């Protein structure tokens, strides 16, 4: 009797506890996601269009959930097929459950499920064998889902994770895999097909007959017609639609970028980039077009990067023309590959030198045979100009003036600037790079170079590029060049001659100015073209990823045309065609019209130019000097002799002998310098004579002829007066004399040699030369 009473108490206690447990279970919010995060990583353009999709770890195509709204056609079809009373019930449809139970009892087996959409979510989130106990679990979970989620959220949750056959999960994935379109563009027939598939996903597999799937779809369409959901016309058109008979492959418009982003964020399923869909696709097409054009010339690779100049948002990213071109390293990401810089660093050296007060665009820079302890730079055309303006030197990309300018500015200072501006590939110290740094002695990434050129366009404020939306606010920036210097450099770069028909760009009203620079690495392995306008910064690289050199590879000829094709396809902003400058960034300065340096009283023609406000003092012109001449104008004189021959003060243009030599070779008239009055007691020789080859302390290798004899070396000297004889001495032995074009062949001994030249007036110059015998 007591045992019977205890059992009744236990049952009564359990009867009160069980509802409490169930209520507590229903009230507690969900502590973790209902579905495992096993989604496909999707990479999208700024407008939401797909750029690349990765299959997930389970070999499934499975779009991650997003915030888009379920399209009305699909929502209507799904509710009509799966859960007619979806908006009326509270997670379960009691009438449908009772009906299903009665049908199952009558048949002695489960023939009807009566599952609502929340119940199907419960089953999909934790699949189990179909039993009454598991059905009760699904009912409880469905009620809980209905308590904690809105109807629209539940519908979205179901469709995002519903199986659609094969390895396709989710309605948005299915819309792309079966119809090649976004779900918002589905027709009534397509929506009905996707509504019935989760109920029997195996029917999507291509078979000889698609009748079961068609019949199921058509029954749903008829049901929606009968309920007045769709019109008779829409019903008839939907019946005519074909069923999907294959899986459509996802197109990849940015495979290198997608792989880079996925590697950097392996747990981030949705990667919303800053890429512009139209610009990206056009750049991919251009890359493929030029790959075919250049293939016959054995140029197999190229890369393109386009960024928003102001913000650094990347608008187009092409790592190579064909990701699947295994023969030519198509999977190499050229945007992030380190390649020789060629000449593309030169604009920054010129801008920094302006700030330092070394030059202005109008200033003379020397273009002469130059030797720096084993390094002797050469211009691409193997010629010497004597002197050129900094503007002409940069526009023509002359190497010797750039090296001399770097030597004057300082390798370490320029190296430090590159590091601060964001060049990430400088793994050696400044001394190890040395002066060749400015000619391509260091490798750089296209990513970094776009960053640097954007900084030049943003008044010297350098900040990083970015690829994902929302990253801009985290980018640090620093001003490393003054506003005025940047503007002057951009003006110089605007004058570079364009390739092909672009040469006459100023004659066309739809053309626009661009500041751009080309670069070709030593051995013709890399061709660069980088341009910047107020809206965009464009970078192009051409070459071969295997590092193979090719004489056909050239910055202006190979990369330049691609850059201008990209420029022409970018949208035009008519109200912002060039960079704006502010008067407050400049100050007036009197400049010698000849040399481009700060004018002195000796300069005959002076221009007033506006120079950067923040630049250091510019050096004075030394090409014009005051000198005293005799009354008859035949000799120069000084205070020791002008009482005897009279005096007249005049301004003269003075070129160093080596500069005068090369200017004369180019056809420029250089007046002969007047010699000092020979009877003057204070007379001394003047610096009118100079050895121009070999360079000071040069080291030469001397090959032998076939007969074993040492080959001779042709030495050169320059004199301000072409009518003066020059006498040559090697190791204190007289070799001979020259007049006019002063060249002399001589045989050097092994080791150090001493070369000396003297003119008939006593002016002299000397050099030490180290010669090493070299066997053929």
TrEMBL record:
Pathway: Cell wall biogenesis; peptidoglycan biosynthesis. It is an enzyme of class 2 (transferase). Coiled coil: none annotated. SUPFAM superfamilies: beta-lactamase/transpeptidase-like, Lysozyme-like. Residues 683-769 form the Penicillin-binding C-terminal domain. Residues 60-224 form the Glycosyl transferase family domain. The keyword Transferase applies. It comes from the Bacteria. Its EC number is 2.4.99.28. Residues 303-551 form the Penicillin-binding protein transpeptidase domain. Keywords: Carboxypeptidase, Glycosyltransferase, Hydrolase, Membrane, Multifunctional enzyme, Protease, Transferase, Transmembrane, Transmembrane helix. It catalyses: [GlcNAc-(1->4)-Mur2Ac(oyl-L-Ala-gamma-D-Glu-L-Lys-D-Ala-D-Ala)](n)-di-trans,octa-cis-undecaprenyl diphosphate + beta-D-GlcNAc-(1->4)-Mur2Ac(oyl-L-Ala-gamma-D-Glu-L-Lys-D-Ala-D-Ala)-di-trans,octa-cis-undecaprenyl diphosphate = [GlcNAc-(1->4)-Mur2Ac(oyl-L-Ala-gamma-D-Glu-L-Lys-D-Ala-D-Ala)](n+1)-di-trans,octa-cis-undecaprenyl diphosphate + di-trans,octa-cis-undecaprenyl diphosphate + H(+). The chain crosses the membrane at residues 12-30. NCBIfam families: PBP_1c. In the N-terminal section; belongs to the glycosyltransferase 51 family. In the C-terminal section; belongs to the transpeptidase family. This is peptidoglycan glycosyltransferase. It comes from Carboxylicivirga marina. The lineage of its organism: Bacteria, Pseudomonadati, Bacteroidota, Bacteroidia, Marinilabiliales.
């Amino acid at each position: 009797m007591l045992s019977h009473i205890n059992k009744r108490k236990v049952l009564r206690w359990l009867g009160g506890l069980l509802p409490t447990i169930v209520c507590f279970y229903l009230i507690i919010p969900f502590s973790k996601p209902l579905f495992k995060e096993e989604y496909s990583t999707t990479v999208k353009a700024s407008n939401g269009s797909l750029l690349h999709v990765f299959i997930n770890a389970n070999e499934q195509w499975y779009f991650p959930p997003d915030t888009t709204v379920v399209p009305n056609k699909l929502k209507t079809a799904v509710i009509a097929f799966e859960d007619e009373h979806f908006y009326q019930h509270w997670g379960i449809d009691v009438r449908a459950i009772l009906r299903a139970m009665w049908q199952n009892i009558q048949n002695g087996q489960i023939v009807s499920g009566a599952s609502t959409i929340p119940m199907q979510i419960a089953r999909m989130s934790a699949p189990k064998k179909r039993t009454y106990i598991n059905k009760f679990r699904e009912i409880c979970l469905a009620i809980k889902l209905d308590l904690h989620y809105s109807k629209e959220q539940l519908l979205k949750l179901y469709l995002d994770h519903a199986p659609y056959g094969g390895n396709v999960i989710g309605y948005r994935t299915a819309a792309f895999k079966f119809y090649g379109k976004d779900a918002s563009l589905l027709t009534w027939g397509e929506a009905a097909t996707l509504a019935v598939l989760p109920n029997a996903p195996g029917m999507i597999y291509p078979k000889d007959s698609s009748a079961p799937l068609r019949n199921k779809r058509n029954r749903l369409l008829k049901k929606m017609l009968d309920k007045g959901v769709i019109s008779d016309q829409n019903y008839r058109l939907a019946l005519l639609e074909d069923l999907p008979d294959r899986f459509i492959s996802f197109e990849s418009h940015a495979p290198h970028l997608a792989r880079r982003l996925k590697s950097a964020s392996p747990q981030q399923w949705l990667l919303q980039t800053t890429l512009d869909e139209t610009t990206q696709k056009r750049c991919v097409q251009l890359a493929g077009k030029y790959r075919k054009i250049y293939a016959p010339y054995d140029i197999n690779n190229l890369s393109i990067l386009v960024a928003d100049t102001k913000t650094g948002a990347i608008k187009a990213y092409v790592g190579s023309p064909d990701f699947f071109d295994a023969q030519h390293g198509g999977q190499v990401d050229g945007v992030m590959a380190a390649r020789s810089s060629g000449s593309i660093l030169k604009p920054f050296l010129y801008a920094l030198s302006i700030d330092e007060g070394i030059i202005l665009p109008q200033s003379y820079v020397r273009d002469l045979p130059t030797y720096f302890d084993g390094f002797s730079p050469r211009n691409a055309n193997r010629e010497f100009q004597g002197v050129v303006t900094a503007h002409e030197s940069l526009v023509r990309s002359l190497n010797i003036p750039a090296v001399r300018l770097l030597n004057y500015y300082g390798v370490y200072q320029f190296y430090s600037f590159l590091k601060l501006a964001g060049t990430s590939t400088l793994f050696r110290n400044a001394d190890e790079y040395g002066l060749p740094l400015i000619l391509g002695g260091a490798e750089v990434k296209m990513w970094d170079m776009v960053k640097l050129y954007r900084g030049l366009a943003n008044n010297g404020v350098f900040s990083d590029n970015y690829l994902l939306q929302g990253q801009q606010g985290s980018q640090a920036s620093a001003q490393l060049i003054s506003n005025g210097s940047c503007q002057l450099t951009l003006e110089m770069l605007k004058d570079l001659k364009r390739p092909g028909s672009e040469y006459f760009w100023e004659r066309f009203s739809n053309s626009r100015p661009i500041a751009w620079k080309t670069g070709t690495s030593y051995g013709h392995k890399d061709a660069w073209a980088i341009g910047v306008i107020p809206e965009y910064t464009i970078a192009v690289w051409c070459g071969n990823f295997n590092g193979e050199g090719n004489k056909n590879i050239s910055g202006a000829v190979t990369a330049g045309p691609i850059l201008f094709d990209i420029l022409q396809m970018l949208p035009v902003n008519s109200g912002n065609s060039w960079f704006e400058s502010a008067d407050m960034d400049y100050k007036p300065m009197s400049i010698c019209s000849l040399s481009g340096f700060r004018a002195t009283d000796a300069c005959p023609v002076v221009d007033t130019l506006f120079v950067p406000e923040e630049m250091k003092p510019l050096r004075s012109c030394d090409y014009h000097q005051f000198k005293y001449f005799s009354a008859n104008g035949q000799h120069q004189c000084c205070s020791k002799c002008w009482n005897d021959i009279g005096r007249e003060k005049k301004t003269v243009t003075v070129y160093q002998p080596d500069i005068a030599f090369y200017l004369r070779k180019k056809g420029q008239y250089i007046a002969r310098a007047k010699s000092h009055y020979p009877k003057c007691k204070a007379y001394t020789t003047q610096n009118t004579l100079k050895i121009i080859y070999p360079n000071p302390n040069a080291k030469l290798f001397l090959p032998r002829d076939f007969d074993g004899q040492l080959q001779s070396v042709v030495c050169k000297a320059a004199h301000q007066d072409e009518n003066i004889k020059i006498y040559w001495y090697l190791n204190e032995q007289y070799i001979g004399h020259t007049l006019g074009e002063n060249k002399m062949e001589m045989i050097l001994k092994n080791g150090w040699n001493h070369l000396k030249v003297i003119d008939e007036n006593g002016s002299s110059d000397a050099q030490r030369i180290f010669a090493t015998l070299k066997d053929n």
